[in-house]
């Protein structure tokens, strides 16, 4: 299916990571001008490198230092994007953080600092960016927001209470926005990835036994790829999905269907 974003401006947060960079490349390949939004704490250089890579192909991309937890910074970056690229048609809230295995604890022992940090980025960040972007999206026919949640926001996993709570919040927050913004022609949808084979995730499964245990829950018996998430976001952002809003699209190889193991 051909999806053409020529003349559209797309902003992606967390654009320097494995999922975000795949989205940036997909949108660019489809003709969009892309705002490559990376964290201000060192990942801005990676965002700039990705934007430069795209610019070398003759397509349009510009890097922005964005802290999704800083409302003033978010508002300023939205203004910069609109001024530099001519507006905003699609905003993808992809930025997110989670604890690693060594920080996973039951709720009574979960670190308060990690709770605050995760909620600040994964939920508050989606609110901050969506709120700031909406005034620009209202000016562009067929505009939309796509928010990245997780299957963990639909079916909780143990010892990740902050990530679970934040990603579940993204789901219902997105549905509330879909109700509110439909009258302005803005669609709001959610993508909920399962386990995706990026560098950060693969580090969790270096033990083949652990990986096999994980895959035993997935009917397709493999991890997803960043491009499979990017393609889903591309579709939901396009006119081909013009009657889809307020939905949650899981991309998980069937994980949430139920147990695939023999009992």
Identify low-pLDDT runs: none
Shape: globular
Order of H and E elements? EHEHEHEHHEHEHHHE
Distance between the termini: 40 Å
Radius of gyration: 18 Å
The largest sheet has its strands arranged as: 3-2-1-4-5-6-7
How many strand elements? 7
Q: Helical percent range?
A: 40-55%
* Structural class by sheet pairing and helices: alpha/beta
Determine the strand fraction and express it as a percent band.
5-15%
Subunit arrangement of the protein: single chain
Average pLDDT number:
93
* Major sheet: 7 strands, parallel
Q: What's the total helix number?
A: 9
List the keywords.
seven-stranded parallel β-sheet; 9 helices; 14% strand; globular; alpha/beta; 263 residues; 7 strands
Report on the architecture of this protein.
This protein starts with 8 loop residues before the first strand and ends in a 12-residue tail after the last strand. It is an alpha/beta fold and about 260 residues long. It has helices spanning about 20-30, 45-55, 70-85, 110-120, 125-135, 160-180, 200, 210-215, 225-235, and strands spanning about 10-15, 35-40, 60-65, 90-95, 145-150, 185-195, 250. It has a seven-stranded parallel sheet with strand order 3-2-1-4-5-6-7, with helices on both faces. It has nine helices and seven strands, in the order βαβαβαβααβαβαααβ. Helix 2 links the parallel strand 2 (about 35-40) and strand 3. Helix 1 crosses helix 9 (about 225-235) and helix 3 (about 70-85) packs parallel to helix 5.
